[in-house]
Specification:
mainly alpha, 0% strand
């Protein structure tokens, strides 16, 4: 078997492994959601509180994983438990987003380049290869340079606003979900930890705040 045959086969196997992993973890998310569907009674109060804590930990871990719809666990907890659980969901959501971001900060940016090449996005991969050896300020200068297109320059200049919008965009699981977006932000090396934390803290607040203060019902 030639190298040319092995390469597509290898890509197919990796893609299949990724899809399988996402399916297994998504199934786990559904199982956790079902486990949270408890009615609190005197005889099961301890189990109820344990389920809440397990659900919160699972929520953080699942939401931080790219392409995994972990957000549905948070919505299930809000729907089942109402306003009282909203602060915990808010803190857990911020923690999950920042966990994914921190993981991305420790990963080599070459992973992002390989991902773009895998998707046949060679121009983006070439750009990542150019900025990879540069410090943060020089990366920003290159991305904001005269050769950058208007939309890209605008997105980089207002990158924290763009990040907040991306994690709240419906259907963002197609581009990695909240965890994948935050991991890519960490990989890029152009987002500072404190501004990122502030942006995410604001971005994920509307739903928990609406439940906590206005009694919004999640179906």
């Amino acid at each position: 078997m030639t190298g040319k045959t092995l390469r597509p086969l290898g890509l197919l196997l990796r893609f299949g492994a990724l899809v399988g992993f996402v399916m297994v973890v998504t199934w786990g998310a559904h199982e956790v959601r079902e486990a949270l569907n408890l009615q609190i009674r005197p005889e099961n109060e301890q189990r109820f509180h344990q389920a809440i804590m397990i659900g919160a930990v699972a929520y953080v871990g699942l939401l931080a994983i790219p392409f995994v719809p972990g957000a549905e666990i948070g919505l299930a907890m809000l729907a089942a438990l109402g306003p009282g659980i909203a602060p915990l969901i808010y803190v857990a959501t911020v923690a999950a987003m920042m966990l994914a971001f921190i993981v991305g900060r420790f990963l080599p940016i070459s992973i992002l380049e390989r991902g773009f090449r895998l998707l046949r996005m060679h121009r983006a991969a070439d750009l990542i290869a150019r900025i990879a050896p540069l410090p943060q300020d020089e990366r920003l200068a290159l991305l904001l340079g005269d050769g950058a297109k208007g939309a890209m320059r605008l997105a980089v200049r207002y990158r924290y606003v763009a990040l907040a919008l991306a994690v709240n965009t419906p259907g963002n699981s197609l581009i990695g979900g909240g965890g994948g977006i935050m991991m890519m932000a960490g990989l890029s090396g152009v987002f500072g930890p404190l501004p990122t934390f502030i942006a995410i803290a604001i971005a994920v607040s509307p739903v928990p705040m609406a439940v906590a203060f206005f009694g919004l019902q999640i179906q």
